[in-house]
Every structure is written in structure tokens, then in C-alpha cells.
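Input C-alpha cells:
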């Protein structure tokens, strides 16, 4: 097969596995030998390594990114009568959790260039909900979409003024940094996902919560084990079965030593794409002081018709792509009623989220892409415009 026709992966987990296969076999065999499949020592070892990497005081391993969000909101007692503000342009898990807990998700518009929460729109919605007095502004879930940190100083300032909890949904952004420090301490709590295609992914489901608050970390540990207290059969609060499996912690420990190198490789791939695509399509702009983890590389076409042409061109060239996300959350049947119920006078429009869903396209992104592969993808995009 010539290099110009070799398949390109949207995400590549095989190349990485090849580099660490012997260590994976050794670490997984150690768990099999110990039989400590739940709360084995690998979980605490991973938690210490994550906290150190992220530069925060506490890391608590949990069963998925979704459960990380749920445990964080349960710990704050978020529920009926509470408004939880979050972007309309994100993955469903961000909005699902407040709704499951009985709270009302309030969808907020995003910025055209960064794809992240629009602080002006967020502020206006928080102030309107507060003025209407039907719901209590309780939390903001900022998402670092595709790996790019949201405007955390801005979000935190707003949360401080309204007494709200700031939760960072960093499911797509482990490894990203803002103003010189990694995500993990920019919000009151930070939720990570270790879903296999994330920047740090395990071989199943997994997640973690990062925080600088010892009180919150203790609550998260209790909530992930059915709300248990100091002893196993003391139940202090309603919790859930939300632990991280020992085998997944062992897998993540094998991957962590590669992580810094993989982050640098993702940044290189993003720079190659940007070099070739700038001026042809819209790119996710990286604000001053932000370092993206480049979980995905997402372009913005001029309109739906242009995206259709690029999709057809990539398909014809055998190049995989994804559309994250084809529909804003407030248009999803599961959230339509909650969306309408949030504001007394009906919800304000979300034009940028709606428009982006018609125009975005994610290109292959992983640390093992070569410059020649990036060139092939970029050439196919440009030829299809
Ligand atoms: C922004 C965002 N939040 C939350 C999640 C949920 O993570 P998980 O799949 O580990 O439950 C994801 C994962 O896809 C995500 O992309």
C-alpha cells in the first residue's frame, strides 16, 4: 500500500498500545494475581499521579466522566428548584446529570471562534434567572470543548458574585492548561473522563474528580461508594456505585508516562493542520494564555452546504471524520421541555450553537499522525470546498 492510500484513523489507540503492551500485560497480570478488582492499590497510586500532574490537592477515581459530574453535583446537594447553566453545544452528559438530579439545565450560547461558553450570554441568563426568582442560580458547568479551556477566570468571577458552584467538565481536556497551570484547580471541581478515545483513555469506562477542597474530596469518596461513612456498613447519605475499576487504574498508570510526549505530539499535529487550513476554513481559536489538549481538531465551514461537500470529499478519499455535534442540546427531545421551562417568558435564542451544529467537522486527531497524513487530510478538505 502506498503512503498516499494507507488508512488514516480518526483516533488511534493501537499505535499507543504497541508501545506499552509489555507493561500493560505486567500491570494487568498483577491485578489478576492480587484479586483486588475493587479499590486495589493501583487506584490510590493513580489518584496521586493525577493530582500531581494536574497540580491540585486531590484526585478521586470514579466510574466515568458522567458519574464524575453526577457525584460533584450530588455533593453540592443540587436538585429541584436549582438552575444549572451549561453550553448548548456540548455532549449530552453535561446536561443529563442536572436533569437526572431534578435540577433545571439552562442552556447558554457559545462563542463562534472558541466554541466555548459565551461569558456575556452566560451572565445575562444568570441575571435573568435570578431576577425571575423561580429557580435558584446554583452552578455553572463549563466545558473545555475539544480540549480548549473555557474562560475560567470569567466563569469563576460570575460564580463568586452569585454564590454558584463552578464545575469544570474537562472530559475532553485532560492535559490542557490556562495561564500556566493545568486544568484541575481552575474551578471548584474538575471532572475527567477516561473513555477510550479521550486524551488519556482507559480500556473501558473511567473518570476522576479533581479538587483543591479536602471536604469535597472526602464527600466524593463517600458518594462513589453508596454514601458510606467511616466503616463499610455505615450509610451517611444517598450515593451511588461509582468507583474506578482497579484494572482501569492499572491501564492508566501504564499510559501516564507517555502522556507528556503525546500532548506535545497533538500540539504538533494541530499546528500542521492550522498551517495548511488557515484561510480556507474556520479554526477553533485559542485565546491568549490557553493551551489546548487537542482532544479533537474541529473546523468550521462557511455553511451546511460547504460542510456537505467536505464530508463527501473526505469520504471519497477514504478519510474518516466526525460531526461533534450535529444538534444543539436544547433541540434534543430529551431536553426540549426543560429548555422551555427554565425561563418564565420563554428561553432566549441560541443562534451560535445552532449554526455551529450545521457547520463543524472534526478531522482525524491523535498523537501518532504524521505530517504527510495531515497534509493528505488538509488537501482533501481544501479540494472539496
Ligand atoms: C464534554 C463531555 N462531558 C462528559 C462526558 C462523559 O464522559 P463519559 O463518557 O466518561 O461518561 C463526555 C464524554 O464523552 C464529554 O465529551
Amino acid at each position: 500500500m502506498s503512503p498516499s492510500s494507507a488508512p488514516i484513523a480518526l483516533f488511534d489507540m493501537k499505535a499507543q498500545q504497541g508501545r506499552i503492551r509489555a507493561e500493560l500485560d505486567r500491570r494487568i497480570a498483577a491485578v489478576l494475581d492480587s484479586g483486588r478488582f475493587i479499590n486495589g492499590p493501583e487506584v490510590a497510586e493513580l489518584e496521586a499521579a493525577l493530582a500531581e500532574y494536574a497540580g491540585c490537592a486531590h484526585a478521586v477515581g470514579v466510574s466515568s466522566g458522567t458519574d464524575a459530574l453526577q457525584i460533584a453535583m450530588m455533593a453540592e446537594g443540587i436538585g429541584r428548584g436549582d438552575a444549572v447553566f451549561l453550553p448548548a453545544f456540548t455532549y449530552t452528559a453535561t446536561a443529563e446529570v442536572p436533569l437526572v438530579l431534578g435540577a433545571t439545565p439552562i442552556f447558554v450560547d457559545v462563542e463562534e471562534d472558541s466554541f466555548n461558553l459565551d461569558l456575556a450570554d452566560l451572565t445575562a441568563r444568570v441575571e435573568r434567572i435570578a431576577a425571575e426568582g423561580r429557580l435558584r442560580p446554583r452552578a455553572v458547568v463549563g466545558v473545555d470543548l475539544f480540549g480548549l479551556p473555557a474562560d475560567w477566570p470569567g466563569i469563576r468571577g460570575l460564580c463568586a458574585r452569585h454564590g454558584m458552584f463552578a464545575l469544570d467538565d474537562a472530559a475532553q481536556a485532560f492535559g490542557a492548561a490556562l495561564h500556566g497551570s493545568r486544568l484541575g484547580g481552575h474551578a471548584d471541581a474538575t471532572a475527567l473522563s477516561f473513555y477510550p478515545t479521550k486524551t488519556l483513555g482507559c480500556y473501558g469506562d473511567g473518570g476522576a474528580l479533581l479538587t483543591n477542597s479536602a471536604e469535597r474530596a472526602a464527600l466524593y469518596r463517600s458518594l462513589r461508594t453508596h454514601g458510606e461513612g467511616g466503616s463499610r456498613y455505615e450509610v451517611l447519605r444517598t450515593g451511588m456505585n461509582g468507583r474506578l475499576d482497579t484494572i482501569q487504574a492499572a491501564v492508566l498508570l501504564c499510559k501516564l508516562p507517555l502522556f507528556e510526549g503525546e500532548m506535545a505530539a497533538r500540539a504538533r499535529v494541530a499546528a500542521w493542520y492550522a498551517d495548511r487550513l488557515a484561510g480556507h476554513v474556520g479554526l477553533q481559536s485559542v485565546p491568549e494564555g490557553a493551551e489546548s489538549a487537542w482532544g479533537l481538531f474541529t473546523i468550521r465551514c462557511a455553511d451546511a452546504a460547504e460542510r456537505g461537500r467536505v464530508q463527501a470529499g473526505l469520504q471519497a478519499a477514504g478519510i474518516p471524520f466526525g460531526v461533534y455535534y450535529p444538534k444543539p442540546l436544547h433541540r434534543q427531545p430529551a431536553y426540549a421541555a426543560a429548555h422551555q421551562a427554565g425561563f418564565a417568558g420563554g428561553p432566549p435564542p441560541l443562534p451560535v450553537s445552532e449554526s455551529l451544529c450545521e457547520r463543524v467537522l472534526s478531522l482525524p486527531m491523535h498523537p501518532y499522525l504524521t505530517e504527510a497524513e495531515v497534509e493528505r487530510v488538509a488537501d482533501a478538505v481544501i479540494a472539496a470546498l
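The chain has two domains: 14-255, 258-384. The mean pLDDT is 96.
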